[in-house]
Design a protein that fits this description.
The chain is of the alpha/beta class and about 240 residues long. It has helices at about 15-25, 40-45, 65-70, 90-95, 110-120, 160-170, 180-185, 195-210; strands spanning about 5-10, 30-35, 50-55, 80-85, 100-105, 135, 140-145, 150, 155, 175-180, 220, 225-230. The chain is elongated, with a radius of gyration of 20 Å.
């Protein structure tokens, strides 16, 4: 499989549907990720950066509309809802919650593929753009060129790993960065399961930045998924 093949995440609890989509999507050159529950789907969406999501509404652990609403809090990935629910109210609700298209079951595979191609054309894959050299919200200043961090104009001494985690989160500011992605990038592929390393470093970062995890200013935990850097608006005189 070509490493550049678009990644499609299928979130559907029907095994036969997932298998049918897997065969059809792979035949068209897509890389397929599968989830049988809302929880698994949200984790894959956050950690594997799919280019498109196919979402069923009738999931065993959560309502599909809730999954869509949560996904839209941190991602603009195109979402095609695939559901047996064919009444207008369900379609309107899904589209209002951020779905890009809605297809009812049973469906024709060729029509579905055409809709996927249209969504991918209209929503090119998100690429993480590099953060500006200096982040400064009036309280926290991160100078990436000098690898220096200041809190209320006082230098914050960080270890190499602490700085690397903070810089990685800043690079993807506003988006969830999965635990495994951070571990892979900073500790290496052999440490992707060592989540306790990451928890320790995040704890130290919060302590040094005086960032309360219950009401975070900068580092927000997405339970079971990863972390997100929250950009704060700088004072008007710094804009």
């Amino acid at each position: 499989m070509n490493a550049a093949a678009p990644r499609v995440l299928v979130i559907d609890d029907e095994r036969q549907i997932r298998r049918f989509l897997d065969i059809g999507l792979r035949a068209e050159g897509y890389h397929v990720l599968e989830a049988a529950s809302a929880a698994e789907g949200l984790v894959l969406a956050a950690t594997r950066d799919p280019d498109l999501v196919i979402l069923d509404l009738g999931l065993p652990d959560r309502e599909g509309h809730e999954v869509l609403a949560e996904l839209r809090q941190w991602s603009t990935v195109p979402v095609l809802v695939l559901s047996v629910r064919d009444d207008e109210g369900e379609k309107v609700r899904a589209l209002d919650n951020g779905a890009n298209d809605y297809v009812t079951k049973p469906f024709g595979i060729q029509e579905l593929m055409a809709r996927l191609r249209a969504l991918l054309r209209n929503h090119p894959a998100e690429t993480a753009t590099d953060a500006p050299p200096v982040y400064d919200d009036g309280h926290l200043r991160i100078d990436r060129t000098r690898r220096e961090v200041f809190l209320e104009q006082e230098p914050v001494p960080l270890t190499r790993k602490e700085y690397a985690v903070l810089a990685a989160l800043l690079k993807h500011a506003g988006r969830v960065v999965g635990q495994q992605q951070l571990l892979r990038e900073i500790w290496g592929p052999s440490h992707v399961q060592d989540t306790h390393y990451l928890r320790i470093v995040i704890g130290r970062l919060r302590q040094k930045l005086d960032d309360d995890p219950a009401e975070p200013q900068w580092i927000k935990t997405e339970p079971g998924v990863g972390y997100r850097f929250l950009e704060q608006q700088p004072p008007s005189d710094l804009r």
